[in-house]
From TrEMBL:
Keyword Iron: yes
PANTHER family: ALPHA-KETOGLUTARATE-DEPENDENT DIOXYGENASE ALKB HOMOLOG 3
Keyword terms of this UniProt record: Dioxygenase, DNA damage, DNA repair, Iron, Magnesium, Metal-binding, Oxidoreductase
Cofactor(s) the protein requires to work: Fe(2+)
Protein name: Alpha-ketoglutarate-dependent dioxygenase AlkB
Record flagged with keyword DNA-binding: no
Region Disordered, annotated ranges: 1-20
Alphabetized GO MF terms: catalytic activity, acting on DNA; demethylase activity; dioxygenase activity; hydrolase activity; metal ion binding; oxidoreductase activity, acting on paired donors, with incorporation or reduction of molecular oxygen
Length: 215
């Protein structure tokens, strides 16, 4: 199934803009197509692109180490350590801009969010492999608010165990927020494919709640 920008929406509230519940079974996905953020998406993109100390991280798969095909940064409360691919990352301290965005995402999710992973996809060659955000420190039903800025890219969902299940492709446009909750991470993996065609840069921010004393 494909969800394209401009799909008719369930409801529209001026504080939230058009919002849609996505038809993926055994998941809880809400897409805010153009969430009002109190600043233009162009300004937000440019500030984050310029101010973030972007890093190329490596990942070890079957004993071989590769560079991740994108740039990353991790921010959060001082105790929000995060384990990813066998490594523990200490968070950078919140910037004023990221704190403002965090507060907006908390309000939207009606849940605490003490950290954020930033991913910078420089062009269509950058991508994210299929994964679930199901690390123990995110708890049994992680709440993740994913804000996209810049070039639209497709996020694709595939079932974790049942190969025959129909998946979902959802286009994440500039200024959209995808709320993933409930059993989403328990049942589904997601990723961003490489593109063959030229494509501009994109920044994605996934706000999360890392449980204390777990990492
Ligand atoms: O770039 C995206 O939309 C996906 C990001 C993501 O899945 C993650 O940070 O875990
Ligand atoms: Fe993810």
């Amino acid at each position: 199934m494909q969800i394209e920008p401009g799909t008719p929406t369930d409801a529209s509230d001026p504080d939230l803009g058009p919002v849609e519940r996505l038809p993926l079974p055994d998941a809880d996905l809400q897409l805010f197509h153009q969430l009002p953020l109190g600043a233009s998406t162009t300004d937000l993109f440019q500030a984050l692109q310029a101010e973030t100390p972007w890093r190329e991280e490596s990942i070890t798969l079957f004993g071989k180490t590769y560079l991740q095909p994108r740039l990353m940064a991790w921010y959060g409360d001082p105790d929000a350590h995060y384990r990813y691919s066998g490594k523990t990352y200490a968070p950078l301290p919140w910037t004023n801009l990221l704190l403002k965005l965090r507060d907006r995402m908390q309000q939207l999710a009606e849940a605490p969010l003490n950290s954020v992973l930033l991913n910078y996809y420089r062009d269509g060659r950058d991508s994210m492999g299929l994964h679930a955000d199901d690390e123990p420190e995110l708890g049994p039903a992680p709440v993740i608010a994913s804000l996209s800025l810049g070039e639209a890219r497709k996020l694709y969902f595939r079932h974790k165990r049942e190969r025959g299940r129909e998946g979902l492709d959802v286009t994440l446009t500039d200024g959209s927020v995808l709320l993933m909750r409930g059993a989403t991470q328990a049942n589904w993996k997601h990723g961003i494919r490489k593109l063959a065609r030229p494509c501009g840069p994109r920044i994605n921010l996934t706000f999360r709640q890392v449980q204390h004393g777990q990492a």
